[in-house]
Amino acid sequence: MAASSAKRTLTVRRETFPIRGTFRISRGAKTEAHVVVAEIDDGGTVGRGECVPYARYGESIDGVAAQIESVADAIAAGMEQEELLEALPPGAARNAVDCALWDLACKLTGQPIWQVADLDAPLAPVVTAYTLSLDTVENMAAAARASAHRPLLKLKLTGDGDLERVTAVRENAPDARLIVDANEGWTLEHLKRFGDAFARLRVELIEQPLPAGQDDALLGFDCPVPLGADESCHDRSTLDELRGKYGVVNIKLDKTGGLTEALRLKRAAEEAGFDIMVGCMLATSLAMAPGVVIAQGAKLVDLDGPLWLARDREPGLRYEGETVFPPEAGLWG
């Protein structure tokens, strides 16, 4: 569906990409990645952005598409990023439109994203984590064995049985760095039970152990493994609530509502003393590409979404093992 003026036209597309096998986290499993793409055509020059509506945040494919379409007239009239921040709330819809505007700006000016975004240097390759989907101890052990050559593994966990899962992964990937993600699936008792053991297993980060909104229990809690905020951290407005609970914030464009707010959140989080992790949803290289911008200088990078797909879009990002290369103009930015 599109709305147009003499110059700019906003188009929304729903797309589905099959996943290799099944991807499981504590909240459920999926076999397909459903994405929404916003395209802004300015006289034949097209900027694109991709987002993933997330039910955890009350989003749906149709709802996000409708949100994007709601700003079509404003885009046609020349809306840019600053106005978009006021027009749409943080979330997937704003992300797709915001990233399409950045891509369009790059194409219209002939400049790469690092110059358009006023960064200090060209984008450099980054090393991404590779995610091991939540599964039985035996299956996660086998997955770890197959991925033992990768330098950084991210384990999806759920609660009971997680110590056995992490132990099995460590035994089968003895040299890999490990981070774990409970996706809000633990209680404080789980954290107390697993903390020391995970430290001995050389786990470097426990991501979102408790449900967002219930993590005041972390105040004053001394965990031997650093804690990271994912579902508890969306944009700058959520940053103050994280103090004293977490040492790491996971920035995802679908949470911040685009690259514009993500850049500002990263700067504010660093100034507040947080370490930066950059994450992603299950999506194609078009969604990962602006994440590479945020990943510059980040402590941890998790941009492996396309590696889980049976097919990525063409052209896509270049992955060489665990190394993700900056996007080329044919993809984004």
In words, what does this structure look like?
With 333 residues, the protein is of the alpha/beta class. It has 2 domains: 2-110, 2-Layer Sandwich (Enolase-like, domain 1); 126-324, Enolase-like C-terminal domain (TIM Barrel). It is 31% helix and 24% strand. It is built from 11 helices and 15 strands. An 8-stranded parallel sheet has the order 6-7-8-9-10-11-12-13. Strands 1-2-3-4 form a 4-stranded antiparallel sheet. Strands 5-15-14 form a 3-stranded antiparallel sheet, with no helix packed on it. A hairpin with a 2-residue loop joins strand 14 and strand 15 (323-324). 47% of the residues are buried.
What does the secondary structure layout of this molecule look like, with pairings?
Layout: E1 2-4, E2 8-25, E3 28-42, E4 45-51, H1 61-69, H2 72-76, H3 81-87, H4 92-109, H5 113-116, E5 126-127, E6 130-132, H6 137-146, E7 152-156, H7 162-172, E8 177-181, H8 188-200, E9 203-207, E10 227-229, E11 248-251, H9 253-256, H10 259-271, E12 275-278, H11 285-294, E13 300-301, E14 319-320, E15 323-324
Parallel strand pairs: 6-7, 7-8, 8-9, 9-10, 10-11, 11-12, 12-13
Antiparallel strand pairs: 1-2, 2-3, 3-4, 5-15, 14-15
Helix pairs in contact: 1-4, 6-7, 10-11
